[in-house]
Amino acid sequence: MPPVLLPHPITICGLSELGEHEAAGISHVVTIIDPDFPDPEDFQRYAPHRRALWRFHDIVNEAKGMRAPSRDDVAAILEYGRRLRDEAVDHLLVHCHMGISRSTATVAILLAQHHLGRERDAFRAIRAIRPHSWPNSRMIGFADELLERGGALVKAMREHHVAMARAYPDLAALLKQSERAAEVPDV
After folding, report:
1. pTM above 0.90, yes or no
2. How confident is the model at residue 1 (pLDDT cuts 50, 70, 90)?
3. Is-contact 180 135, C-beta < 8 A?
4. Which domains does the chain carry?
């Protein structure tokens, strides 16, 4: 059972899975998609809900023609997390394109935000919610700085990446061939 860090259910998914959650009582949605990607139509079939939207690419280094997640994006996610604590949330759904990187980083940030010293618990919860995950290290690095965690959040993410590289060697091999190669530990 995952550690309880938020008082409501959380679902993490990718675009192709959005239709599976129409009847799940989703009250809040976080969408993180590429800047030019069309808005998912699936939400038209959801019950009324509150939705936050961020648009940036799933990259960890600045790249020409791409919009990397910024410190301001992560600050806005943290502000969203502060507001979320004061709202009646029945069920939070966080998604990106694949439900592997930007969405899991966002949930890790939201889970760790109000729980100093429980950074590892945040990633344990991610593994329970979304076993196949690889949180975006750029986002986690900004959150670590903004939350003044002194590297604890980044360290917990690296431990998570080790666990994921062992559990999903094909994913690790794919990432090793991308601009995210520095995230992949030797296991």
Report:
1. yes
2. very low
3. no
4. 10-183 (3.90.190.10)
